[in-house]
Amino acid sequence: MKSVASTVVDDDDPQAYEDQHVHAIYDHIAPHFSSTRYKPWPIIAAFLNSLPTGWIGLDSGTGNGKYLPFPTERPGSILTIGLDRSWNLLQIAKHAGSRPGLSITREVVRGDVLANGWRDGVFDYAISIATIHHLASHQRRRLAVQRLLQCVSPAHGRVLIYVWAVEQDDLSKRSVPIREGDGSSGQDVFVPWVMSQQTALRNKTHQPVAETASMQDDARPAGVSVYNRYYHMFAKGELTKLIKEAAEGMGLIVGPLTADVTNVLGCDVIRDGWERSNYYIELRRWTS
């Protein structure tokens, strides 16, 4: 089981903290990371399979693009654009779903999940899978949620968000240390990615990355590199609270559309829960 260590975020410059402890690492480990990320999670696959034909959406933090080919039962019936900061992961996402004899080119964009690069309401849906937990402050996590809500249609837009949970199941490869306190605000941790030097050479990335403290471990065995990635592990109820705060900060009513409201914008929680060491929430925008 991987040893997950608590960490303290540099509040003065969370962007620089993420650059060092998230972005540089993912560009470095991209091919090896991608080789372990191929099996879709059932709730996400079902969400994408349920979308109407002709819808266009965003995968914010697409990684290796494993969800870009969906829905598998109706290939090409929707269009998902992949957004990510990692150049090396985008090179993989660009051809997600390709196989020998069939080369496919996907729509991918290099960018920041916090940037306001899309016209408001331009997408029908958006997904954010295992991304927001890499943002190193509550304010940045809230802004990421707002960007998702802003970019989908105010009349029918659907959003699905997944983040890692403090509560890990028995099949998890991670053991999260228990921190003193009320447990309502989650935990900031380093999660190690272990890669042999042989694998690193075989999967040499396109862009060299200087080794940082997050990539070092004095106790590692010879020939093995350990890359410590920053995560904010969410506590029970924390994701729902974050969604409510983000939506209300945009002036949205949080809850179902009712007959007694007029000329307002809202956001309804369709479902939320815990699945295999992750918290998830599905949202739908509405207008009256």
What can be said about this structure in brief?
With about 290 residues, the protein is of the alpha/beta class. It has six helices and 13 strands.
Write structural notes for this entry.
The chain has helices spanning 14-35, 42-49, 87-93, 138-151, 197-202, 238-249, and strands at residues 2-3, 5-6, 56-60, 79-84, 108-110, 125-129, 158-164, 174-175, 187-196, 224-233, 253-254, 265-275, 278-287. The chain is α/β, with parallel strands linked by helices and 288 residues long. Strands 5-4-3-6-7-13-12-11 form an eight-stranded mixed β-sheet, with helices on both faces. Strands 2-9-10 form a three-stranded antiparallel β-sheet. Helix 3 links the parallel strand 4 and strand 5 (108-110). Helix 1 (14-35) runs parallel beside helix 3 and helix 4 crosses helix 6 (238-249). The longest helix has 22 residues, at 14-35. The termini are far apart. Residues 205-213 have low confidence and may be disordered.
- First and last CA, distance: 50 Å
How many H/I helices? 6
Shape: globular
Mean pLDDT value: 89
Uncertain regions spanning at least 5 consecutive residues: 205-213
User: Strand sequence of the main sheet, in spatial order?
Assistant: 5-4-3-6-7-13-12-11
Beta-strand segment tally: 13
DSSP strand content: 25-35%
**Rg result:** 19 Å
Q: What structural category arises from helix and sheet content?
A: alpha/beta
